[in-house]
Structure formats: C-alpha cells, structure tokens
Amino acid sequence: MPTINIVQAVNQALREEMRRDDRIVVLGEDVGKDGGVFRATEGLYDEFGEDRVMDTPLAEAGIIGTAIGMAIYGLNPIPEIQFLDFIYPAFDQIVTNLAKLRYRSGGQYSCHLVVRAPYGGGIKGGHYHSQSSEAYFTHTAGLKVVIPATPYDTKGLLLSSIRDPDPIIFLEPKRIYRAVKGEVPDGEFTVPIGKARVAREGSDVSIFAYGAMLHVAMQAAEAAKAKNGVECEVIDLRTLVPLDTDAIIASVQKTGRVVIVHEAPKTSGFGAEISAQIAERAIEYLKGPILRVTGYDTPFPYTLEEYYLPSVPRVQAAIEKIMQY
Amino acid sequence: MGEQLTSQKRFKGLETDLSEADLKKIYRAMLVTRLFDTKSMNLQRQGRIGFYVPCSGQEAAQIGSAFALRPDDWTFPTYRDVGVAVLRGVEISKLFAHLMGNSDDEMLGKQMPSHWGYKEVNFVSVASPIATHLPVATGVAMAMKLEKTGTVVVAYHGDGATSEGEFHAAYNFAGVYKAPIVFICENNGWAISVPVARQTVSETLAAKAEAYGFEGVRIDGNDVLTVYEATKKAVEKARSGGGPTMIECLTYRMGPHSTSDDPSRYRTREEFELWQRRDPVERLRRTLVEAGLWDDSAEVKLRSEIEGEITRAIEKEEKVAMPSPRTMFEGVYSTELKSLSEQRENSVLDKVSKE
Ligand SMILES: Cc1ncc(C[n+]2csc(CCOP(=O)(O)OP(=O)(O)O)c2C)c(N)n1
Ligand SMILES: [Mg+2]
C-alpha cells in the first residue's frame, strides 16, 4: 500500500471522488492555479478545469453562501476555507443557512456540502493562523464536525463526508499535514462518520483526543508506559458530532480514569462535553477526577506557542496525577 | 486620473510644493523600507525570524500617503504596510523586535510577525483576517467627527479586500456618516494567486467608492509624489467636512505574497520585469537626480548609513530575551481572571521548556 501524508490524502480523496461524481465543485481562495496554499487541491484545476475548481474572490461569506446555493440546486460543492481562522465572515451563512435549512423548511430543502478547513496550532501562525474553534460548530445543531488524525482516516472520512446527506465541517490538522504519514489504499474506501477508533489499547487510563493532539496523546501514552509501566488507552474520536459516546463509555468503564486532550481553550472547549457525557453516563466508574489538558483561556500566542499547546510532558503530568487515584 | 493636481514647479522637471528636505525625507523612508524589507526576507530565509510579509514595490503608495498626515491623524495599516510605520517614525529596532517576537516587541511576542501596531504613532494593531479593520477605521473617523477633533483616518487595504463584506460595510458607513476617512487601496494586482480581474469585473476598484456615494480616484501608485498629492487633497477634504475618499493606487508587490508563497506558480517573469522597471524607489531616486537634488555619492552615503542602522538594530534585538512563559497569561483582560490565574499556577511550564 502506498504511504502518503495527510495533505496528499485530502488531495487523493478529492481527485478520485471528482472523477466519479461530476457534480462536485471545489471552490475557495487560491484553490485553483495555486493548488491551495497548503497544496491540498494541487492538480485539480489542471484536471477538471476552472468550472469545477474555482478560484473565488476573497469573500468567505460568498464562498459558503454560493456553495449552499449550488448544493440546494443539486451540485456537490466542497468549499475550502484557507484557514479556519478566516471562516468568521461565513459564520452567518453556516449558522443561519447551512445548519438550519433542512429543519427550517420542514425537510423540503436540504444542503449537503463539506466545508474543508485547516485548523490548529504548531506552525508558528500566531492568533489568526492557529485557532482550534471546533466548539463553535459542535454547538450548532444541524452541522456534523469531522476531524481526522491520520492519512487513512483523512481519505476515508472525507469520502464519507462527501457522500453524507448533511452539512459537514471537515477540519484538517495542518500541523501534521505533512508530518504524519501512513498507508492509504488507492481507490475507494470509507471510514464511517460517528465511530471512534481505539488507537492504543490499555487498562489504566483513557485518553480522549482528536486531530493533531491524537499524536501527542499517543506519545504521552508510550512515555507513561516506559516511565511508570502505565497502560493508557488512547481513543481517537474522529468525529465530534455525531460523537461516539458508546466508545467513550466503554473505555471509561474499563479504566476508570480519564484524560482529555485538545488544543482549543479549556473553557467551553469540546472536552467539557466529553466530561459531561462521562459524568452523566459513567460517573460510578470513575476512580478520580476527569482531567483536561488543553490550550489555555488566552488568545493563541506566537512566541510562546509551544507552551500553549498541550505537549507530551503536560499530558504525562496529567497521567501521573490521575494514576494517584 | 481624476482632476488635475495642483502643484508648483520649483525643481527642474519636478512638479511639487514639497521642499527639498521633504523630498529627501520621503526618499530616505522609501530606502529604509526597501532595505528593511530585503533584510527581513533574508532573516526569514536564514531561520532568524519565523515569517514575513514583504512590501517591496509598494513603498510609494505607503509612504506618499502617510506623508500627507499629521501626527495626530490615525492610520489603520495592513500586514504589508512597513512603509507607513517607517514614515510615521517607528524605530527600526522596534520593527525587528516584533519580527523576532522578543521582549522588546510592542506586541509582547503575542502576534505573528508583520502584525504590527504602534499606538505612539497612531498606527493601529493589525489582524490577519482581511478587511476586518475597515469598519473599525470608519468608526474611529466617525468618533473624530463627533468629537470635532479635526483629525482624519487613513485606512489601507488591498485589492482582494474589496471583495469582503466588511469592506462594503465600512465604505457604506463612511459614506452615510460622511466620515473623515481616506481609504488607500494598494491595488498590487494580486490577492495571493488571484489576479484582480478574477476578484471583480468592475472596471476599476475606485468605482466601488462611487457606488457608496463618495469620490474614488485611481492613480499611479508607484509615483510617490502623485500619491502624496492625491492623499493631501483627500485629507484636506476630510478635515474640512467633505467626507471620505478612496484612492486606488496602482502598484505591484515585487516579492512573494509572504515568505510562505511561491509566486512563480501563478505569475510570469515578464510581468515582474515590467514592474521592476517601474520600481518606485528607483523612480524617485531618478527624479531627484534629474532635479539636481541627489547624486551617486549621496546615494552611497545614505545606503551605508541605513545599512549600518539595520545591522545595529538586528544585533541589538537578537540579544533580547524571549518573553517568559508566564507572560502568555497576561493581558487577556484588564485584570486577570481567577480561572486564568489558576491555569497559570497549575501549568507545568517548566516541564515544557525541558522538552
Ligand atoms: C478573511 C481572510 N480570508 C483569507 C485570508 C488569507 N489571505 C491572506 S492575504 C490574502 C490576499 C489579500 O489580498 P489583498 O487584499 O489584495 O492584499 P495584498 O496581500 O495583495 O496586499 C488572503 C486570501 C485572510 N487573511 N483573511
Ligand atoms: Mg493585492
């Protein structure tokens, strides 16, 4: 099987699906001739032409709004927002139209599209090229939120997302776009939306993570084993909405100890939802407090980003703390 | 170009009411900006700074416009407007401190490089999201009008920015409230890889101002004197209650969009060479030489003086420590929240640094 990275997996999924489905239209800033600022759409313009790979004007509200219109009319648009940090001009379109069209029309209209956006820190991008704002979208009923952590899942989840009947915010961990490589089959396969993955089995502590943080969690789990012989179970959530609560509860029942890792700020971050689900459904299994290792409640810093982002030592410290219970 | 600009002919072949000292001040600022820009690109390539947004090619639009302002007027720059900062008097060492994100940085290392802000010279802090500063700039101008301060705002933006909703909101409010604001549109032909012809099918960007009921003029943005004259006129109009103006400066970014960009993917060598011949710094230099105000020895002297300043500024700033990890928690609110103090106290910053 070929080994590719995450950005190549995005590219491959788009290319293969565009060959199968000529209703797919890719649109966004610099996605055409330039192949996207991260090269996720590289080569698509040459293969499919400017009608299906559109370099749009610089207006996210226009990109998402018109994509919604195309979707209502039966096309299969895949807009790219260059950085998740630039999605806010389109927030109104996403919250007002995209998320609610099906519900507000009593099911007469629906809108099936995948909004792709690179998210997260670790590239020295400061406030506006680093944010991890998935919680705004998980808090909006009607949207699904998918965040892959590996090349395999990126392709499989992107193909599932493109075929899903609902609107999807597909967040790509740009920090590991090229750093994480893995085997990905050519051709068609899907990874189901709403199913978490046990990335590492263990019986002492459950670590819940997604996106770039999955890899930090994995390294911390290995470090904890090497140092203290602690066996962590690492769960890659893969999709936040719908959330695989069964997988979360099953793991908590097994370990009784929980560490949640995400790079978004702590307050009202998605970790709060995971904690609440565990508290509601499995509190009797807990041996100690639920711990969260997250970004801090500050804007994303530039010089100090390595201190802001959850790191292996920070996750290890949480593992050591919870193992005292 | 719109109306004939009034100016006098005091130097050979040169129509301007600027003094010799003014002209030399403008030229110095342009050369400082150019040499700073070249050096900053090199520092990034050498890994000594993380990122940079170059401005070479756009010095005339930036410096010509800023020169028409009073110190108490406000500017709202973009990431690219190094020339405005230089002309307004920001020390070069401060600019480098920001690019390095060290403890001397006015932004305290919190912002990515090229996201400047210097309150002491009324140069308001930059956010990356395009056009988000424009309604804010209009709001400052509305406040100036309400407070009858007689000051004006100059807000800078690119050609790409004219597509964002906030551009339109800002222009409309400026028109409706007759705000004392001048919009300087640096039309450099490109928004990263997207040419202006793909950005809009309006014949000019200046036409967009007309749609909001105020004057839009399109000028040669690589001629610093033309930019100065046009801005001066617009500023005088704004100061005397005449409302906003938009000046579309036709210019070109001679470098990449940023240090992360490779322009050879989307634009031609011929285009670059065409604009290289219109290099605004070189143009002013030639004009000054022809007017008998400048010569090679003055050029050599000035260059080495500026290069010395740049070298000393870098040497100084590279010795300055980075902000301590604890500062990350400061400045989120006027006084720190208890929850954030707790996060700081519980953080394992020492462990991270040992990593
Ligand atoms: C809201 C938003 N969307 C996208 C971007 C990414 N981006 C950064 S600069 C840029 C092009 C800006 O073009 P223009 O306004 O012409 O200014 P220039 O860079 O040419 O000076 C884009 C698309 C952004 N910063 N903000
Ligand atoms: Mg531009």
Description:
The complex is a heterodimer of chains A (325) and B (355). Chain A is α/β, with parallel strands linked by helices. Chain A has two domains: 3-183, Thiamin diphosphate (ThDP)-binding fold, Pyr/PP domains (Rossmann fold), CATH 3.40.50.970; 197-323, Rossmann fold, CATH 3.40.50. Chain A contains twelve helices and 14 strands. Chain A has helices at residues 6-20, 44-48, 60-72, 91-98, 101-104, 134-138, 151-163, 213-228, 245-255, 270-282, 305-308, 312-322, and strands at residues 3-5, 24-28, 53-55, 76-80, 114-119, 144-146, 168-173, 181-183, 197-200, 205-209, 232-236, 239-241, 258-265, 291-295. Chain A has a five-stranded mixed beta sheet with strand order 9-11-10-13-14, sandwiched between helices. Chain A has a four-stranded mixed beta sheet with strand order 5-7-6-12. Chain B is of the alpha/beta class and 355 residues long. Helices cover 45% and strands 10% of the residues of chain B. In chain B, helix 1 (20-45) packs across helix 2 (59-66). In chain B, 49% of the residues are buried. Magnesium ion binds at residues 158-160, 188, 190-191 of chain B.
